[in-house]
Design goal:
Mean pLDDT: 95
Radius of gyration: 18 Å
Number of strands: 10
Order of helices and strands: EEHEHEHEHEHHEHEEHHE
Shape: globular
Largest sheet: 6 strands, mixed
Oligomer: single chain
Low-confidence stretches: none
Length: 302
């Protein structure tokens, strides 16, 4: 067994305390912080790197390069270290200090891009770097690589179905690359066409929910199919912060900002549903990656 074998098969947790105000509706969350690098992005990163090795696109002498808001960069860095490949990660300069430090612990190289351009700016900068020296890099291109969503089709969706005993009625999560949503939703709807799938979205283009895109104001990932979500639940940054604090203090779960947003969205969806509904969302990463952020203090901001 090696570090790659530890990716996936994460627990499904019931959020009983958080869901007390939606009696009759069950709320579950995938504990993706249990992946070896600490986030859901291990799944797609592992799949894309293994595909690159199988196809010969990743071979000795190549450097793994991609844009990331942080978590996929950490996953690439971890997997690259394990397999003997250097990683070069482009990410917005305002990504948390903890995530940058984790990547550097794996000896990855970081290029910081304008925070005003968010992950879009990092993506465009990576494309320019690859175009200048294509033979130097293996570019998984997570936003436009079908292997990304297929990783969740082949793992996350299957796990949720089995862990709920096929009782899941609703799946909801935020959109970054959209891989988690697309792959998981497709698999669940293949099992049962009656499963409803919703996306969480920030309520404004200017938000602090890291790793989550406001699709109306950003470069849409090539893997994103806008016809698949049945609806969107908009979440403001302050509510996501408050839920991250609640999850820590009430459920004992120290998770990140996108996880807070996902649970807010799941609760809001749950309030509209009939009794007997089973809602599943995703806790994408650990809150330990954001401890330098002030929002952990009541009323604090980033």
């Amino acid at each position: 067994m090696n570090i790659l074998d530890l990716v996936g098969n994460t627990p499904l947790l019931e959020l009983k305390k958080i869901a007390q105000d939606i009696p009759g509706v069950s709320l579950f969350a995938k504990a993706e912080f249990c992946n070896p690098s600490g986030s859901v992005k291990d799944r797609a990163a592992r799949a894309m790197i293994l595909a690159g090795l199988e196809q010969g696109a990743l071979r000795p002498g190549k450097t793994i390069i991609d844009a990331s808001s942080g978590n996929t960069g950490i996953a690439y860095s971890m997997l690259g270290a394990a397999l003997g490949y250097p990683a070069l990660i482009y990410l917005p300069a305002n990504a948390s200090a903890e995530r940058k430090r984790i990547m550097k612990c794996y000896h990855a190289e970081i290029v910081e891009t304008s925070p005003l351009e968010s992950s879009d700016g990092a993506f465009l900068a990576v494309k320019e770097a690859v175009a200048r020296d294509p033979d130097r890099y293996f570019f998984p291109n997570q936003y436009n690589n079908d292997v990304n969503w297929r990783a969740h089709y082949n793992s996350t969706g299957i796990e949720i179905w089995e862990q709920t005993g096929g009782t899941v009625t609703h799946f909801i999560t935020g959109l970054g690359t959209s891989g988690t949503f697309m792959g998981t939703s497709r698999r669940l709807k293949e099992y049962n066409k009656a499963v409803h799938v919703y996306a969480v979205q920030p309520d404004s283009p200017f938000h602090g929910i890291e790793g989550t895109k406001h699709m109306g104001s950003t470069i849409k990932p090539g893997i994103y199919d806008e016809t698949l979500p049945e609806g969107f639940v908009e979440v403001d940054t302050e509510s996501a912060y408050a839920m991250a604090r609640r999850l820590a203090s009430e459920e004992g779960l120290l998770v990140g900002i996108s996880a807070g947003a996902n649970v807010v969205g799941a609760l809001r969806l749950g309030r509209t549903l009939p009794k007997g509904s089973v809602v599943v969302t995703v806790l994408g990463d650990s809150g330990s990656r954001y401890l330098s952020d002030n929002f952990w203090d009541e009323g604090g901001t980033r």
